[in-house]
Amino acid sequence: MTKKSRLYNPLAPWLFLAAPLTIYMIWVIGPMLYTFYLSLTKWDGLTAPVFQGLRNYTRLMKDPVFFLSLKNNFIWIGFFITVPVVFGLALAMALNKDIRGAKAFKALFYSPMVLSLVVCGLIWSWLYNPSQGLINTVLRSAGLGELARGWLSDPKYALGSIITVAIWRQVGYVMILYLAGLQSVDPFLVEASLIDGANKWQSFRHVILPQLRPISIVVMVISIIDSLRAFDLVSVMTRGGPYNMTSVLANFMYIESFNNYKMGYGAAISVILFMISLVFIVLYLNVVMKDES
Amino acid sequence: MKKLGLMLLALILCASILPIWGSGQTEGAAGASEKGMVIYNSMNGDPEPRRVDEKLVADFAAANGDIEVVHSIIAHEDFKTAIRAYLTASTPPDIMTWFAGNRARFFIDKGLIMDISDVWEDEGWNQSYAKSWQAMSSVDGKQYFLPTSWYWWAVYYRPSVFDSYGIEEPETWDEFMDVCETLKSNGVTPFAIGTKYRWTAAAWFDYLNMRLNGPQFHIDLMIGKESYADQRVKNVFTEWGKMIDKGYFIEDPAAYSWSEAIPFMADGSAAMYLMGDFIRDSVPSSIASDIDFFRFPIIDPSIPVGEDAPTDGYFLAANAKNPEEAKALLAFFGSKEVQEYTANELGRLPTNGEVDMSIFNESQKKGIEMINTADFVAQFYDRDTTPEMADEGMNAFMEFWDRHTAADIDRITSRLEEVRQELFTE
Asked: Which of B9, B85, B254 is nearest residue A242 as measured by Cβ atoms?
């Protein structure tokens, strides 16, 4: 105790934090507050912003594209917290054994994560190409030509086609997270449950899964935040088209701000996206901090 | 303390999703501005224009050893989103490519563009450029823009394909529709089009509107003086919708960029493409000598003929750090020699009246003739109207493409009308 008090200086942590906090204030908090301010203005990016109160927000509430984008974000979340989580967990369970080639499989499933989203978007745009793309070509040569379609141009399929790519990329990531989580599962408990007569499913459901709870929460929150951040794939593959059917909030914000030069309006979209994210993040942090204390 | 930590963490996580500051804020190409340097940003991203652009810069640098040109070529679509950041940066690019007409006027009115009347005067452009080009570049008698090249839009086709079905260039709407029927009955889709970036569809709107309702109505619609809910606009969509329903366009156009739809022409599965003359830069060499064009057919001979002939050129940033060097480069771009060279290499038409007309090939002469015999020349949908209106309009064209019953057309036009009122009455 005496040793500690001699070394302990209440200012020390703040001194260490000073440099990163300063940078953080200038580059992150500052612009963020400025975005809040901009959302209350009308700004074309050229002349000075004109303050106009909540007008951008009232206009947003009447903008069908905004609600379409919001809906698409939630559809994205819906798929993202189910499909990749189930597949990722299944893969993790399957590969968490000393079977031959497990490492190679892990690497294979993780490899899409190494590619940037833009690259994924381009590759899949080619796969989806209606006349020469791999998917339609295979379908046609297998005699399933009626299933071939304009994957990214048909409004019924475009959003699903993009989310598929996102899921394809996400599965390996979720798998890695669960593989890490499985290391902390106590093998004796699993063994004990099996000896006590539980079958494999019961052991998984009642012994392994509860122990994975912290990881599951991390996976959920990451999935939700990634869904809200969705931008790159949409921007590369459809730019939100056809006619906004695949628009998501981040893409909508980008088009309004940098294509239509409605910076204030774009900032208002950002702020709403921020609020939605904040809800999930605070929920997450609450859970994490409760677990820690 | 815990509360504070929680809030801080929340902010850190949230900040990663506030992307508005992540992109678009591009600074000028280089920071330092020493004597003897000029920063030049251009949007000549396609391979052929890029080659010519780089060659011109190299020639200029060779002839002016004391001036270093810092040249950046930015892809067309990206350039259009970055231009405002360029113009308002503390160190803007000194000289930039841009569109003549309303798109330039917008920045001129904001005081972001340098007055280059002195260059017009010193280079004798007031005499060597036709009055119409000078007028297009002037505000209150001062020149702010240098138009250097223009091109026409037309219906492009392969003569060999037309010949094999015994088809001739149509001049009237009935002939045009007959051509489409003949092609269709031979299993050939009449039109290639790639609408991923939407503007290719805007060309159809421009032409159908000008042919059905006349260029004056068209341009009034573009500048917000006429209503999108007007019956005349609905007629345009109705006529266009008939063509889509008859299968005159390739399937899934929204999946292709404009140039990705060219292979349909190259392999003979589609016959025509409503496009600007820059289509020649991108056709495969196998059909390069098998490309010709005709004027978008006349629907009503009593209506004046309007054509799209977009003009490109250069302007200087008002707060350019290297105005003298930039003016030297501008003078170079506006010179007879450079325009001759560009016209030869790219087929774009020069604006400098001193360029020897005999250098033009048959295709260029045909294009000039077509524009000279038009009653009105428009720039293009997204150049003639405001960026916001163009964005909404082009989205509407895409929606219309999939849904074009009479009720859909009513709904789409009335929404466009709401947007017009919002944008043009503020």
From this structure: B254
Q: 3-class secondary structure for B102-130?
A: HHHHHHHHCCCECCCHHHHHHCCHHHHEC
Looking at the structure, do residues B209 and B243 belong to the same domain, yes or no? yes
Q: How far apart are CA A36 and CA A40, in angstroms?
A: 7
Same domain for B90 and B234, yes or no, is no
Residue B184 lies in a domain: yes
What's the DSSP call for residue A212? T
Domain end, chosen from B320, B354, B388, is at B354
pLDDT band for position B405 (50/70/90)? very high
Domain count, chain B: 2
Do B140 and B218 have their domain in common? no
Q: B327 and B304: one domain?
A: no
DSSP 3-state of B28: coil
Strands B153-157 and B376-378: unpaired
Q: List the domain range (segments joined by +) for residue B97.
A: 37-150+311-354
Q: What is the pLDDT of residues A197-234, one digit of tens each?
A: 888 888 888 889 999 988 898 899 889 989 998 999 99
Angle at the Cα of B334 from the Cα atoms of B331 and B337, rounded to 5 degrees:
105
**Identity of the residue numbered B66:** D
Segments of chain A scoring below 50 in pLDDT: 1
Query: B69-127 pLDDT, tens per residue?
Result: 999 999 888 898 889 889 988 899 999 999 988 888 889 988 999 999 999 999 999 98
State which residue of chain A sits closest to B86, comparing Cα positions.
A46
**Same-domain status, B407 and B320:** no
**pLDDT, average across residues B365-388:** 88
Q: What CA–CA distance (Å, rounded) separates B37 from B14? A: 42
The answer, for B252 touching chain A at a CB cutoff of 8 Å, is yes
Residue B31 has pLDDT above 50, yes or no: no
Contact A166, A230 (CB under 8 A): yes
User: Around Cβ A141, how many Cβ atoms within 10 Å?
Assistant: 9
Among B174, B163, B118, smallest CA distance to B143 is for B118
Backbone angles phi, psi at A91, to 5 degrees: -65, -40
pLDDT (mean) for B128-153: 89
Is the previous residue joined to A49 through a cis bond, with omega within 30 degrees of 0?
no
Task: With CA atoms as reference, report the closest residue to B213 among B231, B200, B201.
Answer: B231
List domains and CATH numbers for chain A: 34-292 (1.10.3720.10)
How far off is chain B from A194, nearest CA to CA, in Å?
Answer: 41
Residues in B touching A266 (Cβ below 8 Å): 20
Backbone angles phi, psi at A63, to 5 degrees: -95, 115
CATH for B126: 3.40.190.10
Global pTM reads 0.79
In a shared domain, residues B119 and B261: no
* Averaged pLDDT score across all residues of chain B: 88
What ipTM score was computed for the predicted complex, to two decimals? 0.72
Q: What is the 3-state secondary structure (H, E, C) of A103-154?
A: HHHHHHHHHHHHCCHHHHHHHHHHHHCCCCCHHHHHHHHCCCHHHCCCCCCC
> Are B386 and B400 members of one domain?
yes
Report the residue of chain B nearest A150, measured CA to CA. B252
